[in-house]
Amino acid sequence: MTSYEMMLLKGTYLAPYMQLATQLIGKTREGGGNMFRHQFDTMATLIDYGYMESVLLKASLVHDIIEDVPDFNHNLLLSIDFESPAVYDLVLQVTRNPGETKAEFLARIRESGSQNAKILKCADRISNMIALGFVIHTEFIARYTEETARHILPIAEEVDKNMFHELESLVASRRKYLAALINPG
User: Fold this and answer.
1) What is the rounded CA–CA span in Å between residue 92 and residue 15?
2) CA torsion angle for 160, 97, 171, 115 (degrees, to 10)?
3) Which residues, including other chains, have CB under 8 Å from residue 170's CB and lie 6 or more apart?
4) Which of 9, 79, 113, 180 has the most C-beta neighbours closer than 10 Å?
5) CA-based end-to-end distance of the chain
6) CA distance 19 to 27
7) Three-state SS for 53?
8) CA angle in degrees (0–180, nearest 5) for 55-61-66
């Protein structure tokens, strides 16, 4: 990490967002693991790729909270700090709307999401695809892997070639993993 990147992180106050994310403790993920740790994995992926923008990092810590916490009080998020409205807006961009299919949701991000929404979705999907290595439900792995290839790879190709290459590699490895599960030995 460069000294400039360290300086950017030094002034970013993440603790209130971490505290808000604790509402996800104990919520399991269909793809394996739990939702609380997934928020941190997503943030770590962003930092690993050099994204130090505070709104993006804060949103990564709470990006699933609206979808996964019933009766979430959005005022808790809006009242954290001066960047809270921008964080909330970014979280809404990566939150599936009621009645929206997964394909419609991902198309919305690709077609009208902000640059940060697309980057956040790519980091989120990298975390999700890594977690698939611990899943044995073949239909879920197949659906999720093909969804990534069809919808997320084009977003990644647009916003970050390195994320694109990691996701491309994850798609290939999950396809091999799936083939081994279906045809062992």
Assistant:
1) 21
2) 0
3) 126, 129, 130, 132, 148
4) 113
5) 43
6) 15
7) coil
8) 100
Phi/psi at 174 (5° precision): -70, -30
Dihedrals φ, ψ of 183, to 5°?
Answer: -125, 70
Q: What are the tokens at 182? A: 């279906």
Alpha-carbon span 183 to 18, nearest angstrom? 42
Q: Which of 15, 13, 33 is nearest to 24 (CA)?
A: 33
pLDDT digit string, tens, across residues 20-73: 999 999 888 876 678 999 999 999 999 999 999 999 999 999 999 999 998 999
The crossing angle, in degrees rounded to 10, of helices 54-62 and 115-131 is 40
Residues 25, 31 contacting (CB under 8 angstroms): no
Distance from the Cα of residue 86 to its chain's centroid: 17
pTM of structure: 0.93
What does DSSP assign to residue 52?
Answer: -
Instruction: Cite the DSSP H helix spans in the chain.
Output: 3-10, 15-21, 35-48, 54-62, 65-68, 74-78, 84-93, 102-112, 115-131, 138-147, 153-159, 161-182
Tell me the torsion sign for CA atoms 118, 119, 123, 124.
Answer: negative
What amino acid occupies position 60?
Answer: S
